Amino acid sequence: MPNYKNIAIVGVGLIGGSIGLALRQRRLAAEIVGVGRRQESLDRAIACGVIGSATTDLAAGVATADVVIVATPVASVVDDVFRVLAAAPVGALVTDVGSTKASICHSISEKQAISEKQAVPLQQAGSGQQLDTSGFVGSHPLAGDHRSGPEHARGDLLEGKVVIVTPTSSTPSQTVARAQAFWETLGAQVLQMPPEKHDQALATTSHLPHLVASALAALTPPEWLPLAAGGWADTTRVAAADPLLWAQIFAQNTPAVIGALDRLIEQLQTARSSLLAEDRPEIENFLRQAKRTRDALGN
Amino acid sequence: MPNYKNIAIVGVGLIGGSIGLALRQRRLAAEIVGVGRRQESLDRAIACGVIGSATTDLAAGVATADVVIVATPVASVVDDVFRVLAAAPVGALVTDVGSTKASICHSISEKQAISEKQAVPLQQAGSGQQLDTSGFVGSHPLAGDHRSGPEHARGDLLEGKVVIVTPTSSTPSQTVARAQAFWETLGAQVLQMPPEKHDQALATTSHLPHLVASALAALTPPEWLPLAAGGWADTTRVAAADPLLWAQIFAQNTPAVIGALDRLIEQLQTARSSLLAEDRPEIENFLRQAKRTRDALGN
Known about the structure:
2 copies of one chain form a homodimer. Chain A has helices at residues 14-25, 39-47, 58-62, 74-87, 102-109, 173-185, 195-219, 230-236, 243-252, 254-276, 280-297, and strands spanning 4-10, 29-35, 53-55, 67-70, 93-96, 112-114, 119-121, 136-141, 162-166, 189-192. By secondary structure, chain A is of the alpha/beta class. Chain A has 2 domains: 4-193, Rossmann fold (3-Layer(aba) Sandwich), CATH 3.40.50; 198-297, 6-phosphogluconate dehydrogenase C-terminal like domain (6-phosphogluconate dehydrogenase C-terminal fold). The longest helix of chain A has 25 residues, at 195-219. The two termini of chain A are 37 Å apart. Chain A contains 11 helices and 10 strands.
């Protein structure tokens, strides 16, 4: 007997699709409904076998869900979560998969709609202030790919991966426990931390690598690509990801990303001075320290 | 019938070992002799099946070679090539696999021994000035791994990869043609360019990625590693390579590496300004340009 009756996935791209596929392969849900804006994307997701049925009507799609996963781009998450909370059954677990968490989680727990430039109280934005947000907690699966779309979905994408769950002070512990259980049934390992701590760390462990990979790719003259070996290919790989998604991620974590970037520039300036001074012991020290940290991660 | 009678490989690590293995698997040489400084490393290389026999006596190891591959760290290449040229048969093809080329190739064609800080005419360094360097041309296979040692050798390491051959103005075209034929029998595609042009391009396509990967790894607090996803892992992968080898590479291409590093820092400063100004169109443009270049490489 499946663990869940009905799971709705709002946004059936690579991550949403991989969650659907994992649920189907493990027979964890009796019904898996995809919700999207374009029928054509939903048709592709059904054809890929990552969801069972689909609708462009969000309210209808989540009406009988016991779990709703919002897997839309970070700039859309808050709005989508509010629409889900207004339409889903009382007691449904609602979570997202966004790469930033502070702005999303605080907007939701404080019932602030997000416009591009400023937060607006939800009642002014036209939604009810009675909205019960206690069923929501933010999540961030540390899994993905520079490719997008349900065609690249993999049922094992989350297996053995970390999912960070980010309760705020107002999140009921029961909601956190249910989110944890959900991710664990998909084979993930769950870490809990406050949204701000998540954003601070991820600025260095995810957003900065993306920025650096893009800078390296952007400054390389295309005519030198035949001279690019494995090092360039690895170091720039994530620069192939969707520019619009990443511009949104940077916009939601700007101060922390700038802080991480400043530490990197400082590190590079120090290395530059050592190179210029031909200070071999210092360069070796720097490379050794880097190797120690990289080796600690494994492959 | 094998293409070559006797091939000597000086330095049987990952690259030297992979060349040996490729030659053996393709039955291209009747004899493959490994030359190294430590008997223990040579024993491991024989045990791995990457060479047929081995010696710590360089002169004896290359005495009957028709081809000698010097696959030692870049700081040792010039000295090793001179020792090979003094001991190998007249007419032997000698090449190296170093990641930098200008310093190596010009020292050899001008018969300058290299000490750490300055070039010394070879006759002062104790070797003969009559040394015939016409059998030597520099090579750089764009293939490798952040791991080292003959245990990680792969017979297909060079298949489909680019090998850059870097003649100077004094390199006989026959020597270039023989080096090209050698690499092509191992399945590689050969590009020819002057050593300076190689070093200029590789500063951006190889040395800079290494420096950046190391900076990113070095500034990441180890306690955040559980929060590192695929992007961090890819972007820092080459930081696991041997610090001593890479300190030598940087030392042999310092001005070009600093030039490339300055362009990167400028690129990062520009991105920082766009982030700070919340200039979304500019950030999207930057990420799109990066993606275009990265996509042009393929996977």
